[in-house]
Amino acid sequence: MSSFKSKYQEELIANAAYIGTPGKGILAADESTGTIGKRLASISVENVETNRRALRELLFTTPGAFECLSGVILFEETLYQKTASGKPFAELLKEGGVLPGIKVDKGTVEIAGTNGETTTQGLDGLGQRCQKYYEAGARFAKWRAVLKIGPNEPSELAIHENAYGLARYAVICQENGLVPIVEPEILVDGPHDINKCAAVTERVLAACYKALNDHHVLLEGTLLKPNMVTPGSESPKVTPEVIAQYTIRALQRTVPAAVPAIVFLSGGQSEEEATLNLNAMNKLQVKKPWSLSFSFGRALQQSTLKAWSGKDENVKKAQDAFIARCKANSQATLGTYKGDATLSEGASESLHVKDYKY
Amino acid sequence: MSHFKGKYHDELIANAAYIGTPGKGILAADESTGTIGKRLASINVENVESNRRALRELLFTAPGALQYLSGVILFEETLYQSTASGKPFVELLKEAGVLPGIKVDKGTVELAGTDGETTTQGLDGLGQRCAKYYEAGARFAKWRAVLKIGPNEPSELSIHENAYGLARYAVICQENGLVPIVEPEILVDGPHDIHKCAAVTERVLAACYKALNDHHVLLEGTLLKPNMVTPGSKSAKVSPQVVAEHTVRALQRTVPAAVPAVVFLSGGQSEEEASVNLNAINQVKGKKPWSLSFSFGRALQQSTLKAWGGKEENVKKAQEALLVRAKANSEATLGTYKGNSQLGEGASESLHVENYKY
Lengths: 358, 358
Description:
By secondary structure, chain A is of the alpha/beta class.
């Protein structure tokens, strides 16, 4: 085997497969303190620890939500938080059959000599941090690499740095019992068409899997979190069926069958758009040797946030909005979504923020 | 798309898919003049053009055999030969629904500074040669890269050279209408165990697919011809099920689903061994998003050659021997081979020749 032998081998394989259970997906609730501050500001809520805690409790105690989720990605602060009545979030999730995950990267920095391209930090002491998170109950991790499309981008340097950073992160996670989510996000920003996005996505994913192989990563114990293949944000829209075809073809050309599941990022798509696109992919009758699911942040929480607005009396309304999106996406992983989820305020709203930084 | 846009796009995809038709596979009859000379010598037949022609006519006119073949790889001389009654071989094959293929490499040369590792020649003027072969009726090509396992082998240099040579050959073929068979053979020679073979195979295949992606090759219009994953020739044998599991797992970890078919080389296995292993591979439960078939030379012709002995009066007997092996391998691609085919003289004989050169 080209993978190293981790003592967590069987567990990694089982957890990765579990996350890909049809009908389930991931809630990405790992917004850093700065980023969640922007979300809270947009609904006029103060960015203090209690409010951040209250928001996550709202999400995690939504009746029925856990049936639709196999994992939740947390920010470090949240991993150690509890419900108002004192139950640790990690325990709450585990009891609900939901694996806790942890964001382990430390954001992006610019690569000198490029035109605003970035690499991701977080490798220093990563092994010890992963170990600590495993003890706290985490069973998977996430690291976001970011690439952009431009006249000369992504450059070979940016692709290489991000691919090899992801691979190094991935093997360190596996050494410490965490299933690594490999996330090479290609930003949607730009006037390029879907063909360009497809070409770049295929090039980036090929580089990622070469890097993972070089680093002896156990593919059966990983997940992939890619962008869907779409036109750029400044280019005309296409149908979900076209997005589905281009996306699956890109994955067929690059992602080995050993990878158990692909959990798409929503990247600025509206809640409804993201769900419809995921649904179209799962309806397509072509070779798809990995399950196709979601790892949505904004596209699961947007209308929930708006409904909540920080007010206790709105919690039920907010939870109703949340379960509607959870169920919709659960159906989308089965290709059975009819587009009839009660559209809450904001569900069709584009969540695109130019050059998005978490 | 990361592949180049060629005028033969649809035809390449259709031909590659056809070669992978369940129940069919490839007869590798592309032995160079020197190599076929050794085969003829072993049955005391003179190595002259008429004998080489007669042997291939024997194979291509064997009653009932062609239905089990989707392709035959030819050496250049054979591409332009005809039956005794004057029908071009290419026409004979096409009428029977068998695609003619052509060996286009020019053998291996040693890499200076390595311990006997090689790279493959043949890129000079390859485009024009492919165009010529296409006109003559060829629809696919083959190029054999060779790697070996040793204390320090295969080296990163030899993996890189062979992978990038294969990729350059592949895209030139596609520019000229030929489906390239990508063949990175890792020789079975050595005392290593199956785990070592698996690790090397995964490393080599990962490098190949990175190179193919870099060179903008259309994966849907290619075929892969790898070694099965087995113990080294000086190591204890294992069961077909063990060979099958390790082989399928190596492919799951490296070969994109876009590749329509994997056509294994027999690499010195006996006729029966090769069929039984291929059968076990097709019985493995697990994700196999490519058809799994054969591209056998020695493992299809050994008992046929022995039965023929160069004598006219033996042609019928020899053709029956070929039919037995062709049918056995056809069943093996369906996982239905019972291992009961009439063993022709030599069917169980190992065909291993140390450090085999075509």
